[in-house]
User: Fold these one by one.
Assistant:
Number 1:
Amino acid sequence: MLRSFGVQLVRVMILAVCGMLAMIQVNVKTLAAPAIRNDYKSFLKSAETLYTAVNNGDFAQVLTIMKVIEQRLIHLSLKDVVSAEGIEALAANVAGLKKATIAVKQDPLQWQMGAAKLRLAADALANPDQPLWFQYQSVLKEDISTLKGTLVAYASGQQVPKAALTASKQLQQHYQLIRTAALLKLAPELIERSDSVFRYMNTLMQAQSPKYELVQNMMEPLQDAITALFPEDGKATATTIVGATSVPLGWMITLGVFIIAVLSWASWKRYQSEH
């Protein structure tokens, strides 16, 4: 009987220790969460500094802050990014900016676009509940409305109006601004769908004389693809990691020891009652 009691006591203690370790693991992850958020905030601050430097034409500051951004990206935790495509897009964004800064012929527009894309992407990591790129929902809707207006008088056999080409280019530029930020938080299938619709739009717009039906029919899938990128009410959160409540590590160890003691005492009382 003593052997049976010993086995039961060991089992109880193992279960208690496992529970304590699980609680400690949750707490360690929780303690790490603020550090990760601080890294995101620092990365965002650097991206904002770069954006300002680019728009001010401060080339020396751009070179300096790009080195900081690259190092922060290397050490940045990307566990909140929902896909490998998102990580790849963020890295490509930084690599593209780095390449632009060392190019023999500088392209101010490429700088501005790259810096704006990185700023929105960094903000998506630092502020997952209400990222800045959500605000582009109304901008893209307006772009689509403008594009529709330029195609009202279009007829088959004609060239696409210049106003329509300009409107489609503006729509695509605005989409490219948010693409990396969206890819950090959304399923890559949604982004691929939008990419495909834009490729189809470009094919039609660049054709010599696209059919009227094709041009008009492209508007609905274009609008649907853009709408799918944003929350229905414009306020809902994107993919968000919800952290557990932080509990002091020492308190959890004390609690674990207390649980072991209580369970051991209960087993001992049970053993006494049986004998």
Note: Residues 129-244 form one domain.
Number 2:
Amino acid sequence: MGCSAGACALNLGHLKAQSKLSVFFTMILLFMYLFYCLNGYCESIPRPVYDHQSNHLQSRLQEEGLSAYNASQLARKTSHDLDNRLQPNNISIANIYGARKFPQAIIIGVKKGGTRALLEFLRIHPDVRAVGAEPHFFDRFYEKGLEWYRTLMPRTLEGQITMEKTPSYFITKEAPRRVFSMDRHTKLIVVVRDPVTRAVSDYTQTLTKSPGLPSFQNLAFRNSTTGLIDTSWSAVRIGIYAKHLENWLRYFPLSKFLFVSGERLVTDPAGEMGRVQDFLGLKRVVTDKHFYFNQTKGFPCLKKPEGSSRPRCLGKSKGRPHPQIPAHVLLRLRDFYRPFNLKFYQMTGQDFGWA
């Protein structure tokens, strides 16, 4: 059957309009594809496969009997290794899952002060992404370069902050200058604890690794008769907080520091975490509802997270019983630290209450 001239013209016009629309939408799609590729997104399309593999691997490892923490660390490492093998050096590290950035905040000290507890408490916060292991970049691996350091960082999305902790930074002479060279706006967190208790805790940790270690008093005194303290022993030297802070204040103003009480982190974790979250510019998400006090360990643990079968406490290496130290040794140490403590209180504007 034929069609009238008018009807045929109408059909032809309709077909031309459809053809133009098809070309128009095809051009839009091509433009969007080119835009995403030029901005470094095309190479990141396969990432969900490896993210899925990492989650699957973590589940399998937990089924095999590894703790949730160890399984998570091993799965994350495997995923990270895959990521490193697949990503050429000339490809942008930015993708739709965020970017690896230098840390905006670093827990710089102190050893045996409560830094691990603070980091684990912070990692509950959805806007905090932190490196699990201590990178030791600014004290041991600085020669590897800043780009190497950045590859250690987790990916963060807009509104999230990147963090790391390495307690030895606080006592490393070169660390303040190196951190300043990376970013003068870096926020610095120092967890401090009674230096006498901290020294005994430090000694206890070393003693578990080296059972043949001399007694605490033999290491603490240069001369036991005169009571002269050996400040070359690291367990003693770390506790001279005022001296180490002076080094950092040559590069950073006091406003860039937050001094967290290791004692209050045990007795009032929610209160100290509130201060930390305020300092970092975060919403107060981590509160007292997240904690309970473990009588056996003697410090707070995190309540059972959703989907977990048990609460989260720090490892067996935390909360070890301390050896008995003669009272006169501890008293002499307190006398030694007192002027340094008073100076530290004055420098920070905080009285930590150490006798």
Note: Residues 5-38 form the longest helix (34 residues).
Number 3:
Amino acid sequence: MDFSLTDEQQLLKDSIERYCADQQPDVDAAEQWQVFAELGWLAMPFAEDLGGFGGSIVESCLLMEGLGKSASIATFWSSILVAGALLAAAPASPRRDELLTEVMSGDLRLTPALFEGHYGEVPSSWQCLARRDADGWRLSGTKVLVPGAHFDQALVVARTESGELNAFVVASDSDGLISERMALMDGSDCCTLILEDVSVDAGACLFTGDGCEAALEQVLLSATVALAAEAQGAMDALLRDTVEYAKNRKQFGVAIGSFQALQHRMVDMYADAELCRAMLLRGQCAVLDHSADRTEVVAALKYQVGRKGRKIAEEAVQLHGGMGVSEELPIGQYLKRLMMIDACLGSADIQRERFYQHRYADLPQ
């Protein structure tokens, strides 16, 4: 099987690597977002008939892997690959098309408001309520771990009175919407949204029937694979930096990379990273082909990335010694980011349980 990139994909990868190599740690988030828009990255994952460039999960993963290598905390994943993808999956309407145009141009910062307790929840447990009224809908409930404290619109997934999930567009300045910011360990931020009878018009409701639940399933599977690609980029960067450090750091008059025990540990890091890359390719294929076993394949991918990513990061810290947790080197930042990736959309332990539930669902209890 040939996994080599097309010419267009290779150009995209080269463009991402050049940008990330020149990126400064203290880059302004608003300026960075506009650069993403100018480079066409915000429009890349969307279909051409929606005004995008028709990219697939492969192109999304290339971009996420590049961001992972640079230890970036940009909100591309949450704003474009989760909220934007859910918006694009909604039935065509003037409201949807207008929002998509603004998202792809970088003029609108969109964020998904999904979880109500923790990252590992499944949609069937969400209970934020949407009630019809004469003017449209009223939303009540609490959404936690909403990515990015600074956003223009949120896609709030709530349960209607008929029991079905739906997605609603809610402006950040809506009456009755309270936002409580919280900083996360990797330097990114999120917020808790408290909806106290927030009123939205009828056009803010994006789906009909049970269409939202089906769209959510596909969006979250693709988003999980893209998140794993970011972790892959971080793992590759950790391996690269650790090997380079071992070549240059001297102890007892020789480079520590000449010590066989440390060589074995770095080989283990390489083997773990390559295992995750193989799983990442399998996950991409499962999503692209809509494989019947895609849910368990993606769960297995996220499990391995969570487990191996943290192991590789901890090994990198150990091999760097005290420098591994200093702000002078990015090693500690990679560790913190990989820990957040592990938690997001369900930790390794949760993913292992999901894998078992799908793989062995037909076996007698």
Note: The chain has three domains: 7-105, 110-209, 212-359.
